[in-house]
What does this fold into?
Amino acid sequence: MASHRAQGRVGGPEGPGPHWLSGAIGGGLVFSGVTNTCGMTAALAELPHNRPPKSTVTFQGTRLTA
It folds into this structure.
């Protein structure tokens, strides 16, 4: 009975579902750290509102030359 109470609110009587979800998220974070990649960054970079307008000056165009 004590072990049932020790599982907490999320993983208690609902079953193993929340535990699998947290394990999958943790596994994804470990994979991102080991491979030095981030799937969320790649997905967000492809969204249209994260791209500069075509009239934007590039970084090289803003540098002052002597």
Observations:
- The mean pLDDT is 76.
- Helices lie at 2-6, 17-35, 39-45, 59-62.
- The radius of gyration is 23 Å.
- The chain has four helices and no strands.
